[in-house]
Amino acid sequence: MNDPAPTRLLLVDDEASLREPLADYLSRQGFIVRQAEDAAKARSVLLDETPDLVLLDIMMPGEDGLSLCRHLTETRHLPVILLTARGEPMDRIVGLEIGADDYVPKPFEPRELVARIRSVLRRATRPTATSEEDSPYEFDGWRLEPLKRKLSDPSGNVVPISSAEFRLLVAFLNHPRQVLDRDRLLDMVQGREAHLFDRAVDNQVSRLRRKMEDDSRDPKLIQTVWGGGYRLAADVRRLPPEHE
Amino acid sequence: MNRVVNRIVPKSLLGQMLLAVGVALFVAQGISAVLLYRAAEQRREMSYASGLAFQLIAQPSFDFRSKSSNRGHGAGPVWRRIRVEVTSAYPLRPGEKRDSRREQSLRSILSEQGVLPAQLLVTTRKLSDDSYVLGRLRDRPDLRARPEWSNGEFVVAAMLRPGEKAWTVARLPLASSQPRQLGELIMQTLLLYVVLVGLLALLLRRITRPLAALTRRLETFAETRETDGQIEPSGPEDTRRLIAAHNAMEASIAALLDEKDVMLGAIGHDLKTPLAALRVRIESVPDDAERAKMAATIEDIARTLDDILSLARVGRPTDPLEPTDLAALVASVVEEFEDMGEPVILGTGERVALPLRATWLRRALRNLIGNALRYGERATVSLRREGGDAVVRIDDDGPGIAPGDLARMMEPFARGEGSRNRSTGGAGLGLAIARAIAVQHGGRLVLANRPEGGLRVELRLPTKR
After folding, report:
1. DSSP code of A196?
2. Residue B307, Cβ neighbours under 10 Å: how many?
3. Average pLDDT over residues B316-321
4. B362 contact A CB<8A
5. Which residue from B272, B284, B358 is facing A107, i.e. has the nearest CB?
6. pTM of the entire structure?
């Protein structure tokens, strides 16, 4: 990272057996770590200082992590990574819906946690407003909900896609009817987590076509443009963001 | 024979009760109809006998003229009867049979009146055969118009008093009203049947409707295991108590399941947090190889813990069914393995959309494909429609499973080779979880050895529920 000042983290977890070694580890990685054993302590720490990011356990005695998370993201606009021992898929969606930036199930690999902290901070410093990123797309009868990464076909069936395919589709949807060459697509989809996307663009496009086109050999939606590139042959409409 | 009866007899309580009541009512009405018919017959015979006796005794001086009517003016008949004939000729025509039963009843009435005839003859005769009646009717157009005379048959009674030479002959038309009586009886039976069956149907509906609702509720509960949407006790007291008892049982089952979920959640939390602490602490182990082994062990424990938690939760999923493109789901799981460089081949598949829980089904497919790769080197995955099922088929090139072990392999903690060796991976929950997920979707998991070698696993999901 090229930040001149070290990153300040607030670690909120009621389990001292995890909190203390984790704080040590993160300090060794160059972060400045403040600890809090419950939501009340966290709130009082936040009165004095504003961390760059909060690591938050969901299950705590007293006020739970989800409630504190809502407070942090709505009133303080702080990036939050949820730590949880539950790890049910629905918990993940709930966590992301109330505004957490990421969700890490316990036990986690400490190095992966650091990578995720950096990734969230990188995203947080970008100017794009999250609410706009979250608003659903509609095109040619299809619908994409970015928050849930949920793609639905014109008859309402969910079409499961991978995160690489999701990013590729978002790139197309943000540039409808434009010709996008491979380099440009690669730039747009690699931005955040490069390690997750190192396959050829062509390969991902053909996978996306397999899921979305009636006949993937005769694509109507994602067309190949002679001379190198692809184009989304549909108009795209953004809907107001959904709040539950 | 039995099969035919089974097909005809209704299956439902309502149908069976209505059928039983209908049959019983029909038999009872039939018996009562026969009895009624017989009584009416007897009454009629009595009236014939007394009518004939009256004419025979009163003859010939009695005037049958009715009091209130004027001849030729009124609409009603003036003469009810044909004048009694007095003749010296033998009253029976050749070939006519005497009706001894009627003679007997007529004789007993006459003797009650103090008349003891020397001879008494009774028979039935057709109008066309009786010249006396035809002659009388010729002069009497009003009588001719009356159906009982014009219809044809009548009873003829002839009496010879002791010491007299001439016969007194009286005639009475035979009523031809039997069919109408029978019709009335049938109508009456039908009316009774309609009223009774209607009432009974109303009553039975009060019983069977709550029962039907309870059945539907049981089916829903068996599937969702949620106490939402319990039915209110209704109907007769017995049904109410049944429903109330069922609701109580539902509540206690749901409470047990909730308890289990809470307990497992707590176990998960309590074990995973120290596991996470351990995972953080081993980062300070200087020996890289040693640390990697520790990390692998921790990951193994965490995975087993996840499997146990999933198996415990699979029966009560918190996420709703969503219509999903199964072909795309299968493709995306296969692609995950492709991205890791695993030899998985995706066969051509149809597009099949059905309501499912994508996160669960993804897990089932990962387990199955992972197994195929672990034990069978290579996995070929395809999706097809077979009858009412969507079938995801995973073929591998491994040694397969001994036929006797096929069923046992889907039990939790069962593993191949009879060993519990961890190096071949997993705690033996993968297939059990996959099967539970299939069941969660109303489907099933089928294991079979392929004739050309290798194992074939089929995840079959009904497309219509």
Report:
1. G
2. 20
3. 79
4. yes
5. B272
6. 0.61
pLDDT digits (tens, 9 = 90+) for A155-168: 889 998 887 788 88
User: CB-side exposure of B368: number of CA atoms within 13 Å?
Assistant: 32
Contact B437, B460 (CB under 8 A): no
User: Would the CB atoms of B269 and A85 count as touching at under 8 Å?
Assistant: yes
Cβ proximity of B372 and B364 under 8 Å:
no
Q: At residue B449, what are phi and psi to the nearest 5 degrees? A: -80, 135
Report the DSSP beta bridge partners of residue A125.
none
Task: Supply the Cα-derived Rg of chain A in whole angstroms.
Answer: 20
A107 and B276 within 8 Å at the Cβ level: the answer is: yes
Tokens 């996160």 found at: B359
B156 falls in which pLDDT band (50, 70, 90)? Answer: confident
* pLDDT tens readout for residues A173-203: 988 888 888 778 877 776 544 444 445 677 8
B-chain residues near A85 (CB < 8 A): 268-269, 272-273, 276
Q: Helices A182-190 and A201-212 sit at what angle, rounded to 10 degrees?
A: 80
Q: Residue B325 and residue B133: Cα distance in Å, rounded?
A: 96
Task: Tell me the two tokens of residue B443.
Answer: 């489907």
Backbone angles phi, psi at B121, to 5 degrees: -125, 135
The number of residues making up chain B comes to 465
ipTM: 0.72
Q: Three-class SS of residue A70?
A: helix
Tokens 């931005």, residue?
Answer: A191
Length of chain A measured in residues:
244
Q: Are strands A150-152 and A179-180 parallel, antiparallel or unpaired?
A: unpaired
At B321, list the tokens.
């069914």
Q: How far apart are CA B378 and CA B371, in angstroms?
A: 10
Cα–Cα–Cα angle for A95, A96, A98, rounded to 5 degrees? 70
**Which residue of chain B has the CA closest to A87?**
B306
Contacts of B294 (CB under 8 A, 6+ apart): B282, B285
Residue A136 is given by DSSP the state: P
Phi, psi for A158 (deg, rounded to 5): -75, 135
Low-confidence ranges of chain A (pLDDT < 50): 1, 128-129, 192-198, 243-244
Contact (Cβ atoms closer than 8 angstroms) between residue A97 and residue A147: yes
Could you write out the three-class secondary structure of B162-211?
CCCCCEEEEEEECCCCHHHHHHHHHHHHHHHHHHHHHHHHHHHHHHHHHH
Domains of chain B: 1-221 (no CATH), 225-313 (1.10.287), 320-462 (3.30.565.10)
Distance CA B413, CA B409 (A): 9
Please provide residue B283's backbone torsions phi and psi, each rounded to the nearest 5 degrees.
-60, -20
In this prediction, residue B271 carries a pLDDT of 87
CB spacing of B325 vs A18 below 8 angstroms:
no
Q: Rounded to 10 degrees, what is the CA torsion of B421, B425, B431, B437?
A: 140
Alpha-carbon distance A81 to A78, whole Å? 10
CA distance B383 to A213: 17
Q: What is the DSSP secondary-structure string of B64-103?
A: -B-SSPPTTTSSS-SB-SPPPEEESS-SSPTTPPP-HHHH
DSSP string, A141-192: TEEEETTTTEEE-TTS-B----HHHHHHHHHHHHSTT-EE-HHHHHHHHHSS
The distance of A216 to chain B (nearest Cα, Å) reads 12
